Amino acid sequence: MEIESINPFAQEHDTDVADSALVESAQKGDRDALERLIRRHQAWIYNIALRMVLNPQNAEDVTQEVLIKMITKLSQFQGKSSFRTWLYRIVANHVINMKKKCLEEVITTFQAYGDELDRAPDMDLPDRSSLPVDAQLIVEEAKIGCMM
Q1: Which residues, in sequence order, are CB contacts of 130 under 8 Å at separation 6+?
Q2: CA–CA distance, 19 with 124 (Å, rounded to integer)
Q3: Looking at per-residue confidence, does 1 or 121 come out higher?
């Protein structure tokens, strides 16, 4: 797949037919409308994915997987938001789940996670006067982040 990386938010797409009309037609089985939706949004999806995963090959994989999700879940689009907003949520959720899965493959048990924390070097907290917020707040946020 060869897709040019451009600013996804500035990208112009053919507007002779609105997304909502294409979605409605595609939901009724119009293959041409579905193909136009795919072509219209493929580069945009790739650019969003590239900014989230920072790797062109992974962004290509995400793009293909999101396009499959778009096709299979198109019947669930209700038009409560713009099509691109709906599509953006699919991209973002896919990447988040992908990253979670990668982390779960690395750390599989609480014991393994605890071992990783034990291997992290203990360092003194920075000088309290050099911090813009209370050091205890930073410590609490780190604890919450570790528990998540």
Answers
A1: none
A2: 55
A3: 121
